[in-house]
């Protein structure tokens, strides 16, 4: 359901952030993407939601070949691919409710349906009681919960997370991981780039290691495999 065929990515400065990626990720998998700093993890993730285009090669997401995707079709792709960032990327002037509703409203739902769906996902992430608050009034872990709620509000087939626990303490990181695990258990594919050794080694999911833009390891129930 996510497939990369001979994908390369050369940035204008000449850096090859992807150098012959061939990867197949099936619906419902939970995949950790690991590797040293600068290895190409973020580039890999950005190419899946078309934030970056590959220089050569083919990427297929949910049956859609991203190379032939027109710009006007990108919003449709983004609704099927939820994205979670290390720094949350919430809109600071919008409330918790509005941040989540904003992601949904683009599909022109009835206001009553919007409210129902937003409250449903905020309940799932345990934040029903903070709907009127602004992101600045929340802890880091709570902000990440809002961003997870936003990522799943359109019931995407895939959630991709780039270092979602990078700004969080260990306990809060585990709370976020159990949420992502729950989302995965319900059938959503989860792809997560991380430097967190303990999380990778404890959760025993598929591990894809990238170094210099190449897959150097791809193991089921894999280990983090680096020192830190
Ligand atoms: N927009 C860009 N323009 C030019 N070079 C870039 C750009 N984005 C990333 N790079 C380079 O591509 C390489 C891969 O970067 P990327 O961010 O994908 O690595 P990463 O594995 O996510 O690193 P980290 O673990 O530090 O987040 C790096 O050498 C980086 O400097």
Automatic annotation (TrEMBL):
Query: From what organism does this protein derive?
Result: Siminovitchia thermophila
Matches recorded under Pfam families: ABC_tran (PF00005)
InterPro entries from the xrefs? AAA+_ATPase, ABC_transporter-like_ATP-bd, ABC_transporter-like_CS, ABC_transpr_LolD-like, Cell_div_FtsE, P-loop_NTPase
Can you state the subunit structure given in the record? Homodimer. Forms a membrane-associated complex with FtsX.
Q: What is its main location?
A: membrane
Q: Which UniProt keywords apply?
A: ATP-binding, Cell cycle, Cell division, Cell membrane, Membrane, Nucleotide-binding
Family in the record? Belongs to the ABC transporter superfamily.
Which purpose does this protein serve, as stated in its record? Part of the ABC transporter FtsEX involved in cellular division.
Q: Name one GO biological process term.
A: cell division
Span of domain ABC transporter? 2-228
What membrane topology does the UniProt entry give? Peripheral membrane protein
This chain's protein is named: Cell division ATP-binding protein FtsE
Q: Which Gene3D superfamilies match?
A: P-loop containing nucleotide triphosphate hydrolases
Q: Which SUPFAM superfamilies match?
A: P-loop containing nucleoside triphosphate hydrolases (SSF52540)
Q: Which GO terms describe its molecular function?
A: ATP binding
Localization = Cell membrane
């Amino acid at each position: 359901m996510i497939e990369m065929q001979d994908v390369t990515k050369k940035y204008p400065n000449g850096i090859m952030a992807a150098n012959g990626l061939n990867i197949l990720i099936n619906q419902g998998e939970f995949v950790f993407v690991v590797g040293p700093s600068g290895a190409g993890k973020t580039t890999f993730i950005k190419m899946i939601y078309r934030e970056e285009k590959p220089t050569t090669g083919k990427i297929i997401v949910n049956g859609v070949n991203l190379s032939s995707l027109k710009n006007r079709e990108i919003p449709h792709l983004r609704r099927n691919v939820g994205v979670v960032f290390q720094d949350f990327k919430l809109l600071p002037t919008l409330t918790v409710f509005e941040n989540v509703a904003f992601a949904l409203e683009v599909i022109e739902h009835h206001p009553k349906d919007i409210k129902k769906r937003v409250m449903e996902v905020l309940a799932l992430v345990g934040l029903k009681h903070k709907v009127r608050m602004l992101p600045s009034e929340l802890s880091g872990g709570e902000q990440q919960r809002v961003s997870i709620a936003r990522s799943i509000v359109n019931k995407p087939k895939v959630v991709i997370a780039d270092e979602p626990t990078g700004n969080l303490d260990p306990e809060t990181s585990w709370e976020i991981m159990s949420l992502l695990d729950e989302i995965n258990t319900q059938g959503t594919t989860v792809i997560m780039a991380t430097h967190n050794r303990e999380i990778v080694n404890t959760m025993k999911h598929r591990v894809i290691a990238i170094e210099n833009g190449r897959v150097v390891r791809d193991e089921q129930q894999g280990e983090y495999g680096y020192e830190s």
